[in-house]
Amino acid sequence: MNRxxxxxxxxRELEAELCAARAQRGRVEDSEARLRLAAETSGIGLWxxxxxxxxxxxxxxxxxxxxxxxxxxxxxxARWRALxxxxxxxxxxxxxxxxxxxGFYGEMEHRIVRPSGEVRWIHAxxxxxxxxxxAVARLMxxxxxxxxxxNLEEQLRHAVKMEAVARIAAGVAHNFNNLLAVVIPNIxxxxxxxxAVAAQLEPAREAARRAAAIVRELAGFAEGGLRASRAWHxxxxxxRGAVEACSKTFDPWIRWEVELAPALPLARxxxxxxxxxxxxxxxxxxDALREAPGADPSIAVQVYREPERVCVRVVDTGxxxxxxxxxxxxDPFFTTKGPTSGAGLxxxxxxxxxxxxxxxxxxxxxxGAGTALTLSFPIDEAPSLERAAGREGGAPRGxxxxxxxVDDERLLRRVLRALLESAGYEVVEAVDxxxxxxxxxxxxxxxxxxxxxxxMPGLGGAEVMAWVKRERPALRVIGYSGHDKAIEGxxxxxxxxxxxDVLLATVRNVLDAP
Length: 514
Hints:
By secondary structure, this protein is an alpha/beta fold. The chain has helices spanning 3-42, 60-66, 77-81, 86-102, 147-191, 195-224, 235-247, 271-291, 323-326, 346-356, 381-392, 410-422, 433-442, 461-471, 500-512; strands at residues 44-50, 55-58, 108-113, 119-130, 136-145, 231-233, 255-260, 267-269, 298-306, 309-316, 360-365, 371-378, 402-406, 426-430, 449-453, 476-481, 492-495. The protein has 4 domains: 1-37; 43-145, PAS domain (Beta-Lactamase); 231-379, Heat Shock Protein 90; 393-512, Rossmann fold (3-Layer(aba) Sandwich).
């Protein structure tokens, strides 16, 4: 082969190598483009760290995750470490040291702190490049922002925990309510023996009522997390509690006048919120007296009934307000007491609470004539009539009608039996929903009314009521529950614990209704 042929052959070989190199470069560029597309699509940021030069390189996506401009991205290990969350820094550094020693960079999650102060969670993983001696020369890896997933996991863990707490609360509320439903009727029965005994038992009765209110709130939490629990309450009792709390802490020179109308109707309210609204109004009255106490500094609290409403009126003998001030008293952050005497949210909160209960709040005031604030709440006639009947006309008696008492609590069945039989009724007991259906199926129409517990093992009140509507639609049923969630289809709904006169009035009203 002459020299020319050899040169031509070498040229052809070089052309083939060049084509191969171009093809390889195209594949590399295509692979890099795919990698960039995958990283951008998945939100993955890429990094490298050369150990010999301590040079750190970030791509644009990683800069976006850390919320730094590419020009401000860390160029060495120390600047990268400064962006780690202080509580995670030691753990991440130990992970990197282990990777540099072993060549294995496993997955991990940790927090970072952006320059703005925002904390984010990232999921990181990497690999190592070795030098000719087998030592780790370079670490490289990827990171993705997983803050949203981490937050969702935290929310799920919290939800699971709260569900467990709610289940415990439901069990405690159910059992404690049943105990109170036994205690209160027995206190009432003992109180009837003589006025002296009644006076001695009044503190115990009031304590039992307050315990019942706490249990209702606990049951409301069990039903809906931190949802407010509403039930039928005497607003007068709530006003009395607010006055008792405030009178112990207010200035001793303030004179109190409290007037509660008898036989007040019930309102369906969240007791803690309504009591807080009344306290806020009382605090406003106290501050008015502090600013201008006058000759006879006093706070008068009146609770009375108006058509379809029960009202709480708080009157102070302070300096009063002009029209411009009175028009702004419910505005957020409005106050006349100066910057160190409150945020101006007390009456705003009271206004919000009353409106949340579909009520109304009004103010009447004139300079030099004090101030009167009135909170009003809607009432419900049905439970009001039951309460009034029990208190004013005495407990209505039965005429030999048969009452089926359905409850899984033995002591409560015993109390209800004694109460109903003493009032002239005949009582049949059922320990659960299955026993109730069996009793109704064989009674031949001799049972006139049913007292039905809502929550029982096995068949609950709703399932028993479904059977009644299907098989005995004319049968009269009174629901009995530890909170305000009704049983669909019942003629009346009583909330445990219920006062004996209210129970007897309800039974009589349901039997006598058309």
